[in-house]
């Protein structure tokens, strides 16, 4: 199964298109900022979220899915798991639920405006800024080395990152030096694309 999270009007053929609103082409209406999601553990091969994660509120909220129904539907969804993710910042709660739903080795691909672009700052409904190192907090290679250890009950590894440039023009190959130069300039990188793989113990 492949799930298009927060699809809006961008319907992907062959995917399960999910949105908070019953728009044309939406297969299932789900509030993706309330946890847990109504999807089974280890059920998805791929998740896709375009221009969604910058809207995640900081406070995590409980979904309307009754506790007993959750447990009967999926033994993984214990009160311990639900209480843990509800104690996290909403960003981590979202990625915890994505991790739970993904099969081992499954991937989530996200698209977000770069935090130092006008696209990130102009929308008053954006709750957070996303930059390349934001994803380090979700990964084994990054989270353990950061100043703060958030004690996350999940882990990803980075598969790929790419960038859409705006006013800044890259001449030749994009070296680390050129990328660092671009990141110092306002509105030079306008969009981030990242793919993460769910790391699960077998």
Number of strands: 9
Contiguous runs where pLDDT drops below 50 for at least 5 residues: none
What is the radius of gyration computed over CA atoms, rounded to a whole number of angstroms? Answer: 17 Å
Question: Total number of helical segments?
Answer: 6
Written account of the structure:
- With 202 residues, the protein is α/β, with parallel strands linked by helices.
- The chain has a single domain (2-198), classed as Rossmann fold.
- The chain has six helices and nine strands.
- The chain has helices spanning 67-73, 79-86, 90-101, 118-121, 140-143, 176-183, and strands spanning 2-5, 16-19, 28-29, 34-35, 44-50, 61-62, 102-113, 156-165, 189-198.
- The strands form two sheets. Strands 3-2-1-5-7-9-8 form a seven-stranded mixed beta sheet. A two-stranded parallel sheet has the order 4-6.
- It is globular, with a radius of gyration of 17 Å.
- The two termini are 20 Å apart.
- The model has no long low-confidence stretch (mean pLDDT 91).
Question: Keyphrases for this structure?
Answer:
Rossmann fold; alpha/beta; 202 residues; 6 helices
Topology of this structure?
Blueprint (H helix, E strand, L loop, with lengths): L1 E4 L10 E4 L8 E2 L4 E2 L8 E7 L10 E2 L4 H7 L5 H8 L3 H12 E12 L4 H4 L18 H4 L12 E10 L10 H8 L5 E10 L4
Parallel strand pairs: 1-2, 1-5, 2-3, 4-6, 5-7
Antiparallel strand pairs: 7-9, 8-9
